[in-house]
Each structure stands twice: as structure tokens, then as C-alpha cells.
Amino acid sequence: MDYITNNPQATLTDGMHLMVDALRMNGVDTIYGVVGIPVTDLARHAQEMGIRYIGFRHEQSAGNAAAISGYLTRKPGICLTVSAPGFLNGLTALAAATINGFPMIQISGSSDRNIIDLQQGDYEGLDQMNVAKPFAKAAYRINRPEDIAVGVARAIRTAVSGRPGGVYLDITTAMLSATMDAQAAQASLFAPVDPAPKQYPCSGSVKRALKLLASAQKPLIIIGKGAAYAQAEVELRTFVERTGIPFLPMSMAKGLLPDDHPQCAASARSLVLGQADVVMLVGARLNWLLTHGKGKKWNPAAQFIQLDIEPEEIDSNRPIAAPVVGDIVSSLDVMIAKMDNFNIHCPQAWRDAIDAVKQTNVAKMQAKLTTLTSPMNYFNALKAVSDVLDGYKDIYVVNEGANTLDDTRNVINMYRPRLRLDCGTWGVMGIGMGYAIAAAVTSGRQVVAIEGDSAFGFSGMEIETICRYRLSVTVVVFNNGGIYRGNDPNLSGGADPSPTSLTPNARYDKLIEAFGGTAYNATTPDELRTALTAALTSHRPALINCVIDPAVGTESGHIGNLNPKTVAPQK
Fold first, then answer.
1. pLDDT per residue over 134-169, tens digit each?
2. pLDDT band at residue 9, thresholds of 50, 70 and 90?
3. Which CATH number fits domain 371-554: 3.40.50.300, 3.30.70.260, 3.40.50.970, 3.40.50.150?
4. Residue 568 — very low, low, confident or very high, per pLDDT cuts 50/70/90?
5. Contact indicator for 19, 177 with CB cutoff of 8 Å
6. Distance between CA atoms of 379 and 492, rounded to whole angstroms?
7. What is the CA angle 486-61-462, rounded to 5?
């Protein structure tokens, strides 16, 4: 909103209003944040001008919401924070967004440059831009209102082009209050043209990949969340079904092709990794989540095809025999167009071997799911959740924890793309409530967040945010009273709880009652089914305290091998 100064000939605006105008021109419709000096009025003006502002209780959760919003929409999610401590709280989410390849922009107010640069001790003084650089794809600072349009455009283009990532945008206190001619300010605004252009692979790389795939006797396709972000489900289905090759989805790629697809090899993971002779990576990285493509889980003679938009990712762990560098959709389009020139097929013997192992493993899992225990364990509790969610195939499932994460990923089937949201590449805890809020805000759909009790604690106060905005989010806390499990002893024999223990018999459901949500306490699978059905039917904020046996749960879930092994000292 422009304002008039004492000079009747001049109509002025300031950096704060111009910043909002620039965001609006670039299609920003939602900001996630925590307000305070010097950005409170920026949030007010954004709301006044039609941008939805979602206020959080902690900046890390606001940043997580912005990050997953970017993943879901392919537009940069915007996180707004105050200076110094608020900026640092949001920085963890910005770093995680960059590691995961999610487009996000963290906009933080900052102190006066002259005081910061001479280290004279300003209120919340910190050289934020230089602190952010190692943790973001890029970091920029806007010092003058006439540079706002360029700063916003550069941040957007950087966040979404190539491999997406997090961008830090520093807006100084002086810039926010500085004035300039309103007409000149409006003339300076623009939106970047085609900020994320298609990147087609070269023809030779496609031919090399198809030739290698045609030679395979035991081929495998591994689908990563890069393919999910690229929204490549149509092209991927075409390629998978025309070749007949089995596929293995990484966690956030579940649902890109439905988990019950006959070519899904998730139930035979050990077999396909251990025996595949040609592996085609589609938007998946050979990082720790795939044991770097090495070790006893892998066929050491396997050859790799890798589809990735980032050239530097190629050969990062294993030699890649056939790199295909380009965006996922364009790469698959070209491969589909040329595949008829190659005799690509999946030998029936390989598919039969996979199906046999799948049948055996599905039967073993079914036995776990249907075995009743008191208290519940992870598997019979998740069976109850699965029974309900199979009737809600378009619902978002947010998931974090250790055992809660691992077992939910294995039990809860996904049927639609980008509906499973979890802790991703870093395995960082605390994403749950931020992701759930952003999924609900971005889509208007219902969300179920399946949380370990320890993981829930990182962002649990955001249930107030869920209630304040009346979001259709149901939180299910798998409560076994501890980190991994709740019955570990204090090895000293002292009165203090074990390092992995939480409060026994905690009632997390009582928390949401304080904010007007609906609370449930479930101690049996039937109670859990009834509670989840009621919560989803109501479309109101709800929390279910799911009581799990304190003795169940393994150290670090499926990645206990990453824990250093200790040896008791000799006495």
C-alpha cells in the first residue's frame, strides 16, 4: 500500500511493501513463519494483500512446512523468520531442504550492516548471509528497495532450477524501512521467465543406457523422490510396464507407481539388490540410504544407469556405466521414444524368482500383522491403521521416528504419488508437524501423521498451530515411552531415567485438548481403528495416543549398524 509524504508531488513506498508486491507478482500465495523484529509488519502487509500467512510456534517447523510445500508444488516454499536466533532455528530446515532437493526460500530480517560488519553488538546481531552459505544452494542479501525485484527473482530461479534446493534471502532492517518513488518501485518488479527449463539428455547417453538395459538378465529400476518431485509418474509407468522390469521405490517415491503394482519388488528388496545385474536409478542417489551401492546387500558386478539432473551426482559412489543427465521427465520421454530400437525385456525367470520371494515375505509379514499382543506392538497397531487408510487412498501420510518410520514404510501401502512425506535423506527428526500443516494447507486434503513419541516431541507444540488454523490433521503417536523403546535401564543403577527413556504412561492425547482438538487414547487395535475412523470422519484436528509395549523397538530401527559398537571394559 502506497503512502503520501508531506511532499504532495511525491508518492512513496517502502521496502517492506515492495517486498510483498514482489512476492505476489511471483505467485507466492502462502508464507510460513514466526514473526518478530523486524518482520512483523511484513507478515501483516502480506496478509493484507492476500497472501496467506501461517504462523508457527518454532521456526524450524515453519521451515519444514515451506520445504515440503516446495516439494509438493514445485514452487519455492517461503519461510519468514526474525534475525539471528530465529534465522538459526530456520536454518536446519533450509539445510535439509537443500540436501533433499526441495525448493525453498528462507527470508530473514537482519540487523544494520554497519553495526554487524564492525561487530559492535547489535540486537540479535549476526552475519546471517555468510552463516547460511554452506547450508544453502545460494545466499543473497538485499540492501536497497530498488534491488528487491532482482533479489526475489534470483532466489526463485536458484531454488527451482537444476537440482532444486534451499535459498537464503537476507532483508536488512534498513532496507525494509527505506523509501523510494512508488511508480519507479512498481516499474522495477518482474517475474523470472522459465526459471526451471526442461533439460534434455544427449542422444548418445540415452542410446548407451538402453543398450545396457537390453543386455540385462536381472534388471531393476530404483525410483527415488527426485522422480516424485519431477511428477514423472505417467512416463515412469509407461517405461516400467512396456519393459516389464521390476521396480523398487525409495521411501518418498512410494505411490509414484502403486505399491500393489505387480512389478513392485519392495517385498523382495534383499533379493533384487543382491542379484540385479543392471540397475537403473531414476531420481535416486547411491547415498547411505542405498548403502552407497556397496557392501554385502549389493551384487558387486552390477552395472548402473543413472537418470539425474545434476551431473556432479554421477559416479559419486559407484562407477555409473550409463549416465543420463537431464530432467527426469524429459529423459524418460526420450528413452521411451527410442526404446523400440532395442530389444528390452525382463526375463520371465527373473520375474518368477522375485514373485516367489514376494509371496514368502508377504506371508511372513501377514503373520506379524495379525498376531495380537497386549500391549500392542508396532505391527498389529499398524495393521489397524492400514485397515482404515486403505479406504482413504488420497490421504497424505506423514511419517517419522525410528521403528515407527521403518515399520510404517513397510506396512502402509501408498497408491498415489507424493502422498507419503517423511524425514528423507538426512533422516532428521522433527519434520512431522511442519510437513503435516503444509500438506493440509497446500492441498486442502486430510493428513495423518504417524509419529514416534520421541520424534513427535521435536515439533509437538505445533498441534496448537493445527488447531488454530482448524486443519484436518490427525496425529497418531506411537507411544512406547522411549527413544527406540521405553524399558532401557540406567546402567549405573541410579534413580535417573535411562538416556533413551521418556515419561512412562504419558498421555499425549491430553495436549490437544488444551487447544480445542479431539483426543483419543487407544490401547488395542480395535480402539485404534475406531479412533482413527472417528477422527477422519470428523475432519477436525485430532491426536491419538497409541499405547505400544515399552519393550518393543530396536536400537535405531533398521539402521542400527550405523551405531558404533562398544566393548565393556575389562575389570
1. 999 999 999 999 999 999 999 999 999 999 999 999
2. low
3. 3.40.50.970
4. low
5. no
6. 33
7. 65
**Three-state SS across 67-118?**
HHHHHHHCCCEEEEECCCHHHHHHHHHHHHHHHHCCCEEEEEEECCHHHHHC
Query: Which of 230, 284, 225 shows the shortest CA–CA distance to 254?
Result: 225
Q: Is 269 helix (H, G, I), strand (E, B) or coil?
A: helix
Distance CA 56, CA 39 (A): 14
Is there a contact between 247 and 272 (Cβ–Cβ < 8 Å)? no
Q: Which of 237, 263, 264, 260 is nearest to 250 (CA)?
A: 264
Helical axes 40-48 vs 15-25, angle rounded to 10° = 50
Question: In sequence order, what are the beta bridge partners of 399?
Answer: 422, 450
- Residue 542 near residue 517, CB atoms below 8 Å: yes
Cell numbers that stand for 391 in this block: 479406504
Domain boundaries, the chain: 3-188, 203-355, 371-554
DSSP conformation letters of 190-244: ---SSSS---PPPHHHHHHHHHHHHT-SSEEEEE-HHHHHTT-HHHHHHHHHHHT
Residues 6+ apart with CB under 8 A from 300: none
Pick the CATH number of 3-188 from 3.40.50.410, 3.40.50.970, 3.30.470.20, 3.40.50.720: 3.40.50.970
Q: Are 3-188 and 203-355 equal in CATH topology? A: yes
Residue 312 Rama label (left phi>0; alpha psi -120 to 50; beta):
alpha
Q: How far apart are CA 277 and CA 55, in angstroms?
A: 50
* Strands 77-81 and 138-142, bridge-based pairing: unpaired
Virtual torsion, Cα 348, 352, 355, 356, nearest 10 deg? -170
Measured between alpha carbons, how far is 41 from 37 in angstroms, rounded to an integer?
A: 9
| Average of per-residue pLDDT across 355-378 | 97
Whole-model pTM over 0.90: yes
Phi, psi of 503 (to 5 degrees): -65, 120
Give the Cβ contact number of residue 294 at 10 Å: 12
DSSP per position, 418-457: T-EEE-TTTT-S--HHHHHHHHHHHH---EEEEEEHHHHH
Residues 34/55, Cβ–Cβ less than 8 Å: yes
Residue-averaged pLDDT of the chain:
95
CATH fold of the domain at 203-355: Rossmann fold (3.40.50)
Calpha distance 423→235 (Å, rounded): 26
Give Cα 419 distance to the centre of its chain: 11
Residue 571's pLDDT band (cuts 50, 70, 90): low
Q: Which three cell numbers stand for residue 567?
A: 566393548
